[in-house]
Amino acid sequence: MAQPAHQFTQREQVRRQKHVTSDSRAIALPRRRITKGEKVLWTAAVIAIFVFAIVIISRQAQIYTASVSATHMQNTIDTVQKNNDELNEQVQKLKQPDRILEFAKKHGLNLNINNVKMVNK
């Protein structure tokens, strides 16, 4: 008879443990279900964030392209300006009166002061 009493006490202990654990579960909040409307809202929010991210990235790419184009254009302008300055310097050297007189003498021309007329710009 010792065995049935022993089995009874083991069963009672297992039942009490289940009762204690079921009480601790009762204290925990029940799991909330997600409704279809919430799913739609979350899906729409995720899609909106994704679209905004794509728009921002595309705008940044356009800004970068415009910046590179502006930098290239500025470099071209600087090169042309430098070339123009060099050509203006060369024009100033070629316009010197001493050079013109030397060129005229070299080609057999004489300076007659009576035939010289002053031209102003």
Automatic annotation (TrEMBL):
One Pfam family, short name = DivIC
Q: Where are the transmembrane segments?
A: 40-58
**Subcellular location field:** Cell membrane
Tell me which Gene Ontology terms the entry assigns under biological process.
FtsZ-dependent cytokinesis
| Stretches with biased composition (Polar residues) | 1-11
| GO CC, alphabetical | cell division site; plasma membrane
Record carries keyword Transmembrane helix: yes
Keyword Transmembrane assigned to the entry: answer is: yes
User: Keyword set for this entry?
Assistant: Cell cycle, Cell division, Cell membrane, Coiled coil, Membrane, Transmembrane, Transmembrane helix
Show the coiled coil region(s).
Answer: 70-97
What is its membrane topology? Single-pass type II membrane protein
Region Disordered, annotated ranges: 1-22
- What function is annotated for this protein? Essential cell division protein.
- Which family does the similarity line name? Belongs to the FtsL family.
Under NCBIfam families, the record lists:
ftsL_broad (TIGR02209)
Question: What's the protein here called?
Answer: Cell division protein FtsL
Q: Which organism is it from?
A: Pullulanibacillus camelliae
Upper lineage is:
Bacteria, Bacillati, Bacillota, Bacilli, Bacillales
**Primary gene name:** ftsL
